[in-house]
Amino acid sequence: xxxxxxxxxxxxxxxxxxxxxxxxxxxxxxxxxxxxxxxxxxxxxxxxxxxxxxxxxxxxxxxxxxxxxxxxxxxxxxxxxxxxxxxxxxxxxxxxxxxxxxxxxxxxxxxxxxxxxxxxxxxxxxxxxxxxxxxxxxxxxxxxxxxxxxxxxxxxxxxxxxxxxxxxxxxxxxxxxxxxxxxxxxxxxxxxxxxxxxxxxxxxxxxxxxxxxxxxxxxxxxxxxxxxxxxxxxxxxxxxxxxxxxxxxxxxxxxxxxxxxxxxxxxxxxxxxxxxxxxxxxxxxxxxxxxxxxxxxxxxxxxxxxxxxxxxxxxxxxxxxxxxxxxxxxxxxxxxxxxxxxxxxxxxxxxxxxxxxxxxxxxxxxxxxxxxxxxxxxxxxxxxxxxxxxxxxxxxxxxxxxxxxxxxxxxxxxxxxxxxxxxxxxxxxxxxxxxxxxxxxxxxxxxxxxxxxxxxx
Length: 457
Known about the structure:
This protein is mainly alpha-helical and 457 residues long. It has one domain. 79% of the residues lie in helices and 0% in strands. α3 runs antiparallel to α11 and α4 packs antiparallel against α7. It is globular. The mean pLDDT is 88.
């Protein structure tokens, strides 16, 4: 079988997946990051345009949540099926996932258009920032299906071991977005609408690449018409495995809503600062999530092939490599916070206040690998319930309540909003990692003595 992860160096397999995935994710993030960089420096907006972009974060995150629900869940299940040698099942999983992505993308676009105005005001829009958010969202929503297909179906390119092709998926779109942004924003004088249009066109190009590959000759698995009728059990398993990623993104949406509402009490300035902090976090999390995501096909394949020893090696390498790269970024942002702020704004007040906020927000970033590593292990091996629980625990149980509570304690005020993140990193990450060791590591040890006792979804 091609791309057999049960042979050769585990470390090499993970890096072969993780490096292209990280580059691909970096390029994917550049879709929105580039928009924010240009918009944050638009003359005459005093940071209001950047704040307007920040208001639609929850909507973007919600779309990503549904993409992850189907893409990550289907991709993980596909790796297990491929490891067990069941290609027919793997193709049925991929075909059913494709249908789920298209249906949910269309539904999300329609719902967001219908309730756009009340949603934006509920997210903290003011009379000054509404027009910026509205102009961007009107165009951005037209690319909902493209965004979901290009990211969601890319999981199936990666799950087959074609990480470099997966990297090209987002690379071609993001390079185009970077080129079109200044053209539409400044040359054609479209402002914030130009940024949204550049993003939609780029997502369309990425979608065309994904579909050309999955219907082409190079792919191992193909979308087949005979598998299009939904298999209820498979759909249930896809949703079960993707639920952890969905909840993680969904609770990110919840947290962003809570943050916007709380920060709006202190002024539009702080919503703009939080937009920058979230943008930097997306970049900072890339190497860690890239390593964690790169290990998923390797773990899932070896678990399906009944190689618990190689799964253990994957877990150890993922945690050590993730800790090293997260420590490097943590030191950088703590020592040079202003450098990261300048990338997104030239507003003097935003730079001054944001420097302090960034140090608070990233105080415990280096422990994020505990959450990423534990989460990816649960998902890749089919442990849906703990994966779902810890996705929900860190954001919904810790961050959201702390964001509401901490500003009311003593003289913390707005600082309490930024401190909620590091507190949840420590508590949530440690709980997820320790539980993963207790459940998964012990199960893998049992499998080493009972090699025929592998349980596959």
